Automatic annotation (TrEMBL):
Protein name per Swiss-Prot or TrEMBL: 3-ketoacyl-ACP reductase
Pfam families: adh_short_C2
SMART domains: PKS_KR
Domain Ketoreductase: 21-199
Presence of the UniProt keyword Metal-binding in the record: no
Lineage, top ranks: Bacteria, Bacillati, Actinomycetota, Actinomycetes, Kitasatosporales
Length: 260
């Protein structure tokens, strides 16, 4: 470890007052977000688990982390609401002394052919996925400490162009644009900004409404011949959030098992 890295790590420990780096994970109550929260806690982070409405699930994540010896708390926030997100970040700072990593895993999916999708559903999807990413990114840009990282979530569907995913893919295209621009706007701050773009991953959100034949077909598309798991994706996020991954910046990492 270099002297500069040692100094930065020591500074983060001193500021947090917890002996740990501090992470916020939005959408942390289920699926990939839950796995990310648990993985970061296992890596020594104090974790703030952001959730939109399912308090019971978020509290369960906190209990699981604490049972394993980690530090965590749950906080409700609508990611598209400035006041909610500001309060979420202030809670992390007040409780743990600062923020080192933000993982923005909260998202919404609506699937239908473009000709058939209800426009109210389109507006709700883009409010969460685009405005939410913008609002969370604003607070992260203002508050992340040196050596920190912001990790957003896109989707490999952008390249795969599955029918029915038009509205969702369009929203994630915006996420990628915001991610790449913010990485450049953070020049001089020693903060990395990246996005992870999972392929088909075995979460409740992804599996809902799909029959076994469809799931098997999607699993077979990868040269690894399986669906991804939340743990696969959490491992990528954990790398980007770590000092080892800090040189990766302004990138979209397509964690999809090799689907092209």
């Amino acid at each position: 470890m270099t002297t500069q890295t040692q100094s930065r790590t020591q500074s983060q420990t001193d500021q947090s007052g917890t002996g740990a780096r501090v992470a916020i994970v939005t959408g942390g109550s289920r699926g990939i977000g839950r796995e990310v929260a648990q993985r970061l806690a296992g890596d020594g982070f104090a974790v703030v688990v952001g959730y939109a409405g399912n308090k019971e699930a978020a509290d369960d994540v906190v209990r699981t982390i604490e049972a394993a010896g980690g530090r965590a708390l749950a906080a409700r926030a609508d990611v598209a609401e400035k006041d909610d997100v500001t309060a979420l970040f202030e809670l992390a700072e007040n409780r743990y002394g600062g923020i080192d990593v933000v993982v923005h895993a909260a998202g919404r999916m609506a699937l239908a052919p473009i000709a058939e999708l209800d426009l109210d559903e389109l507006d709700a999807l883009h409010r969460t996925n685009i405005r939410g990413t913008f609002v969370v990114g604003q607070q992260a840009a203002r508050r992340l400490r040196p050596g920190g990282a912001l990790v957003n979530f896109s989707t490999s569907v952008l390249g795969l162009a599955f029918p029915g995913y038009g509205a969702y893919a369009a929203s994630k295209g915006a996420v990628e644009a915001l991610t790449l621009i913010l990485a450049r706007e953070m020049r001089g701050r020693d903060v990395s900004v990246n996005a992870v773009a999972p392929g088909p991953t075995a979460t409740d959100l992804f599996l809902d409404g799909k029959d076994e034949e469809t799931i098997a077909r999607l699993a077979a598309q990868s040269p690894l011949e399986r669906l991804g798991t939340p743990r696969d994706i959490a491992s990528v996020v954990a790398f980007l959030a770590s000092p080892a991954g800090h040189w990766v910046n302004g990138q979209v990492v397509r964690a999809n098992g090799g689907i092209v």
